[in-house]
Specification:
By secondary structure, the chain is mainly alpha-helical. Helices cover about 70% and strands about 0% of the residues. The chain has helices spanning about 1-30, 40-45, 55-75. This is (Na+)-NQR maturation NqrM.
Length: about 80
């Protein structure tokens, strides 16, 4: 039984490791935080209002842009955010 279990665990571990490596590479290339859909699961459960963006999907993008501008200004001043 152990002879059948070890290869399956090794394959599963490898797949998850590759998944996280590629997610990290994608984050480094795009420089955008991971985010979900605006109210995706909440709408399925009957909650129509998105608690993050207030039903305005552009608000999330504008907040990210503001954070990037603030980080850039802080970097120019030699401070960390």
């Amino acid at each position: 039984m152990l002879n059948q279990l070890l290869p399956m665990l090794a394959i599963t571990f490898t797949v998850f490791t590759l998944f996280f490596i590629f997610m990290g590479i994608g984050y480094m290339v795009k420089k955008k935080p991971l985010r979900g859909s605006c109210g995706g699961v909440a709408k399925l459960m009957g909650d129509e209002n998105c608690s993050f963006c207030g039903n305005d999907p552009n608000k999330c993008d504008s907040l990210v842009d503001q954070q990037q501008e603030t980080a850039l200004k802080a970097a120019q001043l030699g401070k960390s955010v």
